[in-house]
From TrEMBL, chain A:
The chain crosses the membrane at residues 9-27, 96-121, 133-160, 172-191, 270-298. Its main location: membrane. Residues 94-291 form the ABC transmembrane type-1 domain. It is a multi-pass membrane protein. GO terms for biological process: transmembrane transport. Keywords: Cell membrane, Membrane, Plasmid, Transmembrane, Transmembrane helix, Transport. It holds the Pfam family BPD_transp_1_N. It comes from Rhizobium meliloti (strain 1021). Belongs to the binding-protein-dependent transport system permease family. It is found in: Cell membrane. One of its GO terms (cellular component) is plasma membrane. This is ABC transporter, permease.
Amino acid sequence: MLRFIRQRALASLISLIGLIVMVFFLSRMTGDPAALFLPVEASAEMKEQFRELHGLNDPILVQFARYVGDVVTGDLGESLRKARPALDVVLEAFTWTLWLAVITMTLVTGAAIVVGSLGAFRSGGFFDRLSSMVSLIGASVPDFWLAIVAIVIFSINFAILPTSGTGSVVHWILPIAVLFVRPFGIIVQVVRGSMVSALSSAYVKTARAKGVKSGPIIFIHALRNAMLPVITVVGDQAASLLNGAVVVETIFGFPGVGKLMIDSILQRDFNVVLAAILVTAIAIFLMNVLIDLAYALLDPRIRH
Amino acid sequence: MKRTLIMGALMLGSALAPAFAASGAVKIVLPEEADLLEPCMATRSNIGRIIMQNVSETLTELDVREGKGLMPRLAESWEQKEDGSWRFNLRKGVKFSDGTDFNAKDVKYSFDRVMSDKNACESRRYFGGMNIKIDVVDDTTVDFTVDPVQPILPLLLSLLTIVPEETPMEFVREPVGTGPYKLTDWTPGQQIVLSARDDYWGEKPEVTEATYLFRADPAVRAAMVQTGEADLSPSISQTEATNPATDFSYLDSETVYLRIDHNIEPLNDVRIRRALNLAIDREAFLGTLVPDSAVLATAIVPPPTLGWNPDVKVFPYDPEQAKKLIEEAKADGVKVDTPITIIARTANFPNVTEIMEAIQAQLQEVGLKVELKFVEVAEHEVYYSKPFREGRGPQLVAAMHDNSKGDPSFSMFFKYDSEGTQSGFSDPKVDDLIARASAAVGDERAKLWSEVIAYVHDEVVADVLLFHMVGFSRVSERLDFKPTMATNSMLQLSEIKIK
């Protein structure tokens, strides 16, 4: 198992290095941060001096060598815009994103497994059709629309939840509810599909013939075998949340890493962009390792 | 006796009045978080709206609320001496929020810091092209000797925020100033809090504490004021501004225009430039894609600016005349069939996509070949500012320019002088007029700026001026506050009254 993790880490490290190299050069090809930091009326000398101050005048390879040297010693540089270490800025934002992702995915996975399994058990029945419809709608509703509608209904009309912000527990309800909908819709479909085939397999029939009750059949016998594809999709969805839920962060004023990344790209705040990519990439790597472990736990064929 | 009683009652009344004046905390929701709270960056709106004149003060202050012109702030008075240099007499008994005394040395240091190469202070741009020597005469007197003589130095100093001498040259994140408020909390991504100071030199404002929140979505900002989560949002969208009791529109000092690149055929021909102007039905945009209260522009600066010229008339919508001019140019061999590209910036202002598409269609209507290209902010800058790309085609750059500072000098050189970074042409007469206007004072100055505005619009046909834009604010009914032209760049808490 350890060897497996080591191999994965090595492979991820190589792609991470490739990513950093690519982003470093691409971002520097797409525009001058001086032009964005200073107003359009700023003189050429001022822009020149800004570049000098931040080492942007050196040949790009020199800049790259310096960056790599700093990263190796654990220094991800300063944010051009905020005059503070890029890593601090990113970790601050990433903490919010991580909590949003963890809470949302826990709720989504639990709910989707129950709803999907029950739907599959009485495949074609009323509950199945209802849950299919709801999940299909969930998977296709645009989140910015949902977020605004949720604010209008719950904050303005009923005045029971705050519109946005981060002050207290109630502030988390709307963002998580909005983030919940799409992965829920997708995962319910996967659980259902996977469960339908698991429930029609020979061992389920055998269990039934032996008189095992419905509950244990669904949640013990079939579910364990149906979980593998579900875990893959859960991983996918969690990864997209870890990259930041840009729309939800923007609308609800959640200071997460998604909005930070977009803003930093637009402002050519290179160090923040690179630090954000580094942090989210490592998080996604760790999550993938967890998923692989979950596979191994569920399926002895992988374990051995 | 009776009179004494009345007098007494009046005196009692006025003595009690301050006690009855409401005071309290407010919450303000802004579209964009300040990435820094650096005083020398306060001329940038996301920073200025929080700290300008609230935390960091300037020697002078331009009043746009009552049109009183340039007012004293940290300077009590100023005068120009015979040799053209300026003397400023500073206010006494002023303390910074860190407890140190404000004096003339701080003024000199603040200026030196802005000009230092150890930072990238944006307010340096207002002092470009001049040599400034500052002499500290005594604690409350400071002389500015400027070469060449600078007639609007007092106005320029309304943009120089004063920091204590102890401030490091590098950017700070915790500003220290002489203003009525000091920074008491900054939780990045969440909130910034300013609290009123007890030891402020001036009148005590009614707002005791201001919490700034940041929401990128205008609908959410509007909703927050509606639900009472915030008291004031200086900018909401037009579609949200539906409640006359809380929503106010204001001319916001932004001017939308198409910058024409005169260097490239066929835009080098004045007939084509005139045709561009005649082909656009500006009126049709008002109340449709552009707010009803926007004003059609005849200058790059909005109407309350010195020298704004009421005699310059908006180009009429006359597609027939436009077609005729294009035909004439074509007959003279001008390559009118060359495709012209409009370069616009995504999300530059509300409805920019639809507005630019409509303009493209109107220009095509009169027989020009027009393409439309949207770019994001960094790339837009490459098209907008010099050096322009070699081998480019004819281009119109759609841009928005902000000048709330009352004098055209903040615009004219950049947009129209041969050396100006966003100037699409070169005309010796314009250069000369701008140079003379910049050096002139009083009525002469206003007259020369009027002349520049008329000449650039009518003779050179420098660009396609479109609209002076309006902004919309939502103000809670518990506050008494009307937005002004300056609201885009600063938000003085002392101007907010609590009902």
